[in-house]
Amino acid sequence: MSVRDVVFPAGRQALYERNRYSPAIRSNGLLFVSGQVGSRPDGSPEPDLEAQVGLAFDNLNAILSAAGCTFQDVVDVTVFVVDPAAHLERIWKVVAEHWGDAPYPTLTGVGVTWLYGFQFEIKVIAKLPDASVG
User: Fold this and answer.
1) Which of 10, 20, 36, 107 is the most exposed place for a label (fewest CB within 10 A)?
2) Total structural domains within the chain
3) H or E, element range at 48
4) Is the whole-model pTM more than 0.90?
């Protein structure tokens, strides 16, 4: 069995170890990032919706940066939103601030009923710098 090539953002390794999952794994020229939520350093949810979405992107960008990537390297995005009919418009205004210019990554949006106290989660796959994967 090969050893997983795990990427940890600075200062949050204990949080991931406590919850028993890896924030990201490098494999075959790609970076697979676990779903990121708007958690504070102690793992608790940011209560304000817009701030929570911004913090989810901050947490995502910390992982991307630790792997030498930026959001521009992201090729696929999955977002999970609790009660999207009520929250998507407010969430998408914040997302647009972090999304960058076209061409955009692929996107799958999933409405969910529960995210462990959070309202938004973002999961991505990014191409690693200098990777030869098409």
Assistant:
1) 20
2) 1
3) none
4) yes
